[in-house]
Amino acid sequence: MSRRDLAVDIGTSYQQGQGVIFDQPTLVAVNDRTGSVVAVGREAWGLAGEQPSEIVAVRPLRRAAIANFELTEQFLRLILRSTGSSRFTRPRVLVCVPSSLTPVERRAVEDAVSSAGARSVTLVEEPLAAAIGAGLPIHDPVGSMVLDVGGGITEIAMLALGGIVLSAAVPVGGLDMDDAIQQYLRRRHDLAIGDSAAEQIKIQVGSAYPTAEVVEAEVRGRELGTGTHVIVTLTSEEIREVLADAVERIVRATRQCLADCPPDLAHDVLETGVFLTGGGALLRGLDMRLARDCEVPVNLTEHPLSTVASGAGRLLDYEPDQRRAFLSAHRPVP
Ligand SMILES: Nc1ncnc2c1ncn2[C@@H]1O[C@H](COP(=O)(O)OP(=O)(O)OP(=O)(O)O)[C@@H](O)[C@H]1O
Ligand SMILES: [Mg+2]
């Protein structure tokens, strides 16, 4: 691997990289009045949380596709620069994209990475990177199934003999769970909370399966009617109900994918289990819930948030020629 090569998992919520390691929220802080970019990544996260100002936080990606080309490019430019690239040492970049991205959306990712300063861009199917990152025997004649629950998208894929046999994507992820919490608080408690507060509640008390003990979280916010500051106590049971719809969609899609697979491969998964990855995999009890409703064993990968990036990082170890053969051999099989 050349020191200048870079593997990027360009996600709706987070950008992660290997080669040179980085991990940043996919967020850009923009001055609403002038339109100029004030900060990106973690720095933008901090700025945007501050009270009424003209700085707004923008997510340049929506459901893993580029929603704002210019901001995505600026974001990538900063990442490339912070990893030591310059006009003279432009990196070759490997980017993971969901299998569900259209050719036009793929082209936009390639263009954004190129104009951010990459010497060359190679796209990798995310499920493939996830499977490599999870250490699955993808070259063997057995079925391996990965389920990646991200911020904006959930992707399920069956792999065998080095290729993706079947994949499905549902537009649901962690951000939808955060949204559901915000809407619930507004409706039920007349309370407005920010994006990161909603995410915190999900992480603290969110679950997909009944937990042994009921945990509680306190939220502070502004009551919409009166503007006064109030504190509301939320229980894990209450939040499980709020997240039920998003969780149900993930479960249903997984069940469907198992049903659509060639029976032999589905049978393999009964033995080896589904490998659960992506930040959403960390939702308490999601593994138990999937195991119960899909009737398969479910394994959580070791570092769900970085499995895709580390799989792509491992692909960097191939010589470019080998990599090309490897990648073209991994086009989805209809
Ligand atoms: N402990 C946790 N419990 C529940 N959700 C979590 C936890 N930790 C992280 N998440 C959620 O995981 C999501 C981010 O996961 P990930 O980084 O895999 O997504 P992404 O790759 O950026 O998005 P996508 O793949 O959809 O484009 C966020 O919504 C975050 O809130
Ligand atoms: Mg992802």
Characteristics:
334 residues, alpha+beta, Nucleotidyltransferase, domain 5, 2 domains, 18 strands, 26% strand, disordered C terminus, binds adenosine-5'-triphosphate, binds magnesium ion
Overall SS class: alpha+beta
Regions with little confidence, pLDDT below 50 for 5+ residues: 328-334
Work out the radius of gyration: 21 Å
Give a short account of the largest sheet.
Answer: 5 strands, mixed
Oligomer: single chain
Amino- and carboxy-terminal Cα gap: 32 Å
Report a brief summary of the structure:
With about 325 residues, the protein is an alpha+beta fold. It is built from eleven helices and 18 strands.
Which helices and strands, and how do they pair?
Elements: E1 6-10, E2 14-18, E3 22-25, E4 28-31, E5 37-40, H1 42-48, E6 55-58, E7 61-62, E8 65-66, H2 69-82, E9 92-97, H3 103-115, E10 120-125, H4 126-133, E11 144-149, E12 154-160, E13 163-170, H5 174-189, E14 191-192, H6 195-205, E15 216-223, E16 229-235, H7 236-260, H8 263-272, E17 274-277, H9 286-294, E18 298-300, H10 307-315, H11 320-328
Parallel strand pairs: 1-9, 9-10, 11-17, 17-18
Antiparallel strand pairs: 1-2, 2-3, 4-5, 4-6, 7-8, 11-12, 12-13, 14-15, 15-16
Helix pairs in contact: 2-3, 4-10, 5-6, 5-7, 7-9
Adenosine-5'-triphosphate (ATP) binds next to helix 5 and helix 6.
Structure notes:
The structure is a single chain. Helix content is 39%, strand content 26%. The strands form 5 sheets. It has a 5-stranded mixed β-sheet with strand order 3-2-1-9-10, sandwiched between helices. The protein is an alpha+beta fold and 334 residues long. The relative contact order is 0.15. The longest helix is centred in the C-terminal third of the chain and has 25 residues, at 236-260. The chain has helices at residues 42-48, 69-82, 103-115, 126-133, 174-189, 195-205, 236-260, 263-272, 286-294, 307-315, 320-328; strands spanning 6-10, 14-18, 22-25, 28-31, 37-40, 55-58, 61-62, 65-66, 92-97, 120-125, 144-149, 154-160, 163-170, 191-192, 216-223, 229-235, 274-277, 298-300. The chain folds into 2 domains: 6-128 and 308-328, ATPase, nucleotide binding domain (Nucleotidyltransferase, domain 5); 141-301, 2-Layer Sandwich (Nucleotidyltransferase, domain 5), CATH 3.30.420. Helix 2 (69-82) packs across helix 3, helix 5 runs antiparallel to helix 7 (236-260) and helix 7 packs across helix 9.
